[in-house]
Specification:
Elements (H helix, E strand, L loop, with lengths): L2 H4 L4 E14 L2 E14 L3 E5 L6 H8 L7 E6 L2 E2 L5 H11 E4 L11 H6 L11 H7 L15 H13 L5 E5 L7 H18 L2 E6 L10 E6 L2 E7 L12
Parallel strand pairs: 3-8, 3-9, 6-7, 7-8
Antiparallel strand pairs: 1-2, 1-4, 4-5, 9-10
Helix pairs in contact: 5-6, 6-7
Length: 242
């Protein structure tokens, strides 16, 4: 049975009536149109939908990178709707790890040095070698990004995200730039972090096959939640095919 349907884990994110409108010149472009959503601690949630459905906007608001136009979003006792820039910065630093489609590694730094970049901004970082071990890159710690495959670079980015010991891992199309086999390795890494560390994981994808590994799948379209599915039998990344 799925965690989402059986586990009374506390709700960590609550969104109510969330809207986001972008203003481009004299044109208003609505990205979110009234989102109501709860996410529980330790849950693996997939946000599924086509380009322009609002997935990234929702993820960015949950991560404190953007603010909503209206509505309310809460993380634990953090009101993200009314938070100041300083408060959002502290929230991101203390609670959230981000993984994006493109790895954003510094070319002149080794894998270990890229991971080490964020350890100075948190109180109790994970040892760098532990973070690299958790993503299967112990043997590549001293390699530069140019010496790593795309999947290895993405796993360095995941190590950089988890070295902070974040409560939440927010992943925006983490396999979007990767081939089928490499993408599965990255998904296995994210699933392992979710399972072993109890990190709440929210993964954006337009690839419906990836939804099979989630506790819940939230399908977005035109800025609205179209459907929410609960997976009673989760698949492992190795069982996925697309």
């Amino acid at each position: 049975m799925s965690r989402a349907s059986t586990d009374p884990s506390p709700v960590v994110f609550t969104a109510r009536g969330l809207t986001k409108t972008y203003h481009t010149g004299e044109v208003d472009v609505p990205a979110l149109r009234g989102i109501d959503l709860e996410i529980r601690r330790g849950e693996f949630l997939v946000l599924l939908g086509p380009s322009g459905s609002g997935k990234s906007t929702l993820l960015n608001i949950l991560g404190g990178l953007e603010t909503a136009s209206s509505g309310h979003v809460q993380y634990g006792d953090h009101d993200l709707t009314s938070a100041s820039e300083d408060e959002l910065t502290r929230y991101r630093r203390e609670h959230v790890g981000f993984v994006f489609q493109f790895y954003n590694l510094i070319p002149s730094l080794t894998a270990a040095e890229n991971v080490a970049l964020v350890t100075d901004i948190v109180a109790h970082p994970m040892p760098i070698d532990e973070a690299l071990a958790r993503v299967g890159l112990t043997a590549r710690r001293d390699h530069f990004p140019s010496q790593l495959s795309g999947g290895e670079q993405q796993r360095v980015a995941i190590a950089r995200a988890i070295v902070k010991r974040p409560d939440v891992l927010l992943c925006d199309e983490p396999t979007g730039a990767l081939d089928y086999v490499t993408g599965k390795l990255v998904l296995e890494t994210i699933a392992r972090i979710n399972s072993e560390l109890g990190t709440t994981a929210v993964v954006i994808t337009h690839n419906a096959a990836i939804a099979g590994m989630a506790d819940r799948v939230v399908q977005l379209g035109d800025g609205r939640i179209q459907k929410v599915d609960v997976n009673t039998h989760k698949l492992t990344p190795s069982q996925l095919s697309w």
